[in-house]
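Job type: complex structure
Entries:
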Amino acid sequence: MRRMFFSSTSMMKRDFLRKLVWGSALVLGLGASLQALAEDEAPDALIKRISTEVLDAIKADKSMRAGDMNKVIALVDSKILPNLDFQRMTSSSVGPGWRQATPEQQKRLQEEFKTLLVRTYSGALAQVSDQSISMKPLRASAEDKEVVVRSEVKGSGDPIQLDYRLVKTPGQGAGWKIYNINVLGVWLVENYKSQFAAEINAKGIDGLIASLVERNKANANSKK
Amino acid sequence: MMLGRKLQCVAVLAVLLLLQGCATVSRPDPRDPLESVNRTIFGFNDAVDGAVLKPVAKGYRAITPQWLRRGVSNFFNNLEDVWSALNNGLQGRGQAFSDSVGRVLVNSTIGMFGLLDPASELNIERRSADFGQTLGKWGVPPGPYVVLPILGPYTLREVAAIPVDSYEPKYQLGDQDAHLVLPALSLVDIRTKFLGTDDLLGGASLDAYAFQRDGYLQRQRNIQFDGNPPEDDTEP
């Protein structure tokens, strides 16, 4: 009798343990699959999500459309920047000079270029009124590590072509990251190459950094 | 009339070319052999913009209600669509041709002579095209980059197309006096649309001239290849 009782409690214990293991496995599994979902978000789905979120946020906020730049910049910081591969964007724009730059110079280039782009392009973003985004079909296979996502901004007037190059980044913070943007057929990185090369040619890497700093200072003053 | 003025611009350009032909540029771009002249005209255009065009556009925006400005824009867009339809046809772009024709038909009738834009509500897209683009489709190379006084960035091919493009209905409507009024109003209309973004060029670049040139040439190439230009080099 005692023995039976003992064994039944141990059975209950084992049953409980099994449930615990199953339960936690389920929770862990769910978590893992959620994470996989985030990582596996297709590049065009990512672009669609970010664009829609950004457009909706601007449409919903009168102060942004009235030109509250700090708010627009905050929006860009939180929604767009985490999805950019800024190091690649900067290194491509700087070109061959990038490899001659010290890590410290590379870091500063990256920071100043980021400030320049965020400030100026936030200004354009604040012009949004009745526009909406339409995605074009993605031409890519599942193994591709780099893709071009094409979209159009539609409103009154000609549709505005807006394309993105994305790279699949492995490891920490994995997922698709944007490293080049095309507005109306103009790739952003390509449009900085000759200016950056001219600066480096004339005044070296430090000269380019100084010019970027100067430009950012002037922008900060004029926007106030 | 318009034709004559544009030819005058070209003549001015030619004189400036002769005057400045021997100035040197530190890092010549093969697409821009006229860089030193172009930079001079770019500076001139920038000054004219700051002194005349921008203030006029600001004044226009201040004294007119939005519906009126929208009507003016629509009206010019409709006239441009006529020209786009013709050129899309010459380029053999079937969809763009039928879209443009459809827009003109809808907007000129239901849209009250183009003052309204019901075609956009019906999702018939604008597909702008001019004769310079048509020449490109026909295989004429773009030639060197040229900045024209007031008119701004061009390639030599687009300059060559100006005599034909000045037959655009926008420049042909009305009697002798209206010949000047409509293009002027069109210029103000276009300039007003860029009021919100015009500090982008100066603010985003280290060298506004190079930024505009590289952007313009990239865009021309993009139009030539229907939004899908072949990759030539680029990523390191």
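Summary: The two ends of chain B are 50 Å apart (CA to CA). Chain B has a mean pLDDT of 85.
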